[in-house]
TrEMBL record:
Organism phylogeny: Bacteria, Pseudomonadati, Pseudomonadota, Gammaproteobacteria, Cellvibrionales
Top EC class, one word: ligase
Keyword S-adenosyl-L-methionine: no
Coiled-coil features, chain-numbered ranges: none
Name recorded for this polypeptide: tRNA glutamyl-Q(34) synthetase GluQRS
Length: 286
């Protein structure tokens, strides 16, 4: 009988600003899921989009995680050190997949942002590299249940017009390289999972299990994000912050007495119940 692989999870923030409540919630959820399975929890800094990055943000994220007792296993991975691996994966997809040049602008792309090979770039045109997808990769989400793609054949960018590698390519290459077995992340990334599963299949890589947690919104229903100016978490109020995100995650541990972040995280790990989120589609803060 085949044995189950050791649980390997990850938290993968982009250094576009400091952690806010929404990103802390995702970090806590992925951390608790890994620790409750006696697994490994990795930290990956997705720093492959220099125009959007904020100087010092990566270090700020590391310090905030440490302040909240969220210590990761193994050395943190910076995607900016993995460009050669992305180039090799792109070559592999070009050989076995349906990769094509595209000169479309956002204004000319069709529904879902797909080109569907309708443009005809010249040799002089600045182009992106896209890959055709079948749009048939469903999966069983551990929180949301069975998921099926809502669109048929489509395509997505692997390398942008500015020659930067796209998130869609980098994330699957690194999940495969780090042997990630379980991905716990925000529901706002749910739609990307279908494409990522197809890319993993094309690269002949193992497909992880997915659990998408509800996103945190403000009172008007707008998702908390760095781009929308979400307030950075106060590292000096780490215990209070952890209680708040555990409450948002519908965890019983939010109400238990704990004198330190370590004690609260140990309680939260022992009582971790991701199924408590099944009835929640959005989390409102404050």
């Amino acid at each position: 009988m085949a044995t189950q692989p050791e649980y390997r999870g990850r938290f993968a923030p982009s250094p576009t600003g400091p952690l806010h409540v929404g990103s802390l919630l995702t970090a806590v959820a992925s951390y608790l899921d890994a620790r409750s399975a006696s697994g490994t929890w990795l930290l990956r800094i997705e720093d492959i989009d220099p125009p959007r990055e904020v100087p010092g943000a990566a270090d700020s994220i590391l310090r905030s995680l440490e302040a909240h007792g969220l210590y990761w296993d193994e050395t943190e991975l910076y995607q900016s050190t993995r460009l050669e691996a992305y180039a090799e994966a792109l070559d592999e997809l070009t050989e076995c997949g349906d990769v094509f040049r595209c000169c479309c602008t956002r204004a000319t792309l069709g529904p879902g942002g797909s080109c569907l090979k309708r443009c005809s770039p010249t040799l002089e045109d600045v182009t992106a590299l896209r890959v055709c997808l079948l749009g048939n990769a469903g999966f069983d989400d551990r929180i949301l249940g069975p998921q099926q793609p809502k669109h048929g054949a489509n395509d997505l960018v692997l390398r942008r017009k500015d020659n930067l590698y796209a998130y869609a390519l980098a994330v699957v290459v690194d999940d495969a390289w780090q042997s990630i077995t379980d991905v716990v992340r925000g529901e706002d990334l749910l739609f990307q999972t279908f494409a990522q599963l197809e890319l993993l299949a094309q690269l002949k890589a193992e497909q992880p299990s997915y659990a998408h947690v509800p996103v945190v919104c403000d009172a008007s229903g707008i998702k908390l994000s760095k781009q929308a100016g979400a307030t950075a978490i106060d590292d000096k109020a780490a215990l209070k912050n952890l209680r708040k995100v555990l409450e948002l995650l519908c965890q019983d541990s939010a109400q238990l007495h704990a004198g330190s972040t370590r004690e609260l995280l140990e309680l939260a790990t022992s009582l971790w119940n991701p199924q408590a989120l099944q009835a929640r589609r959005a989390l409102v803060y404050p």
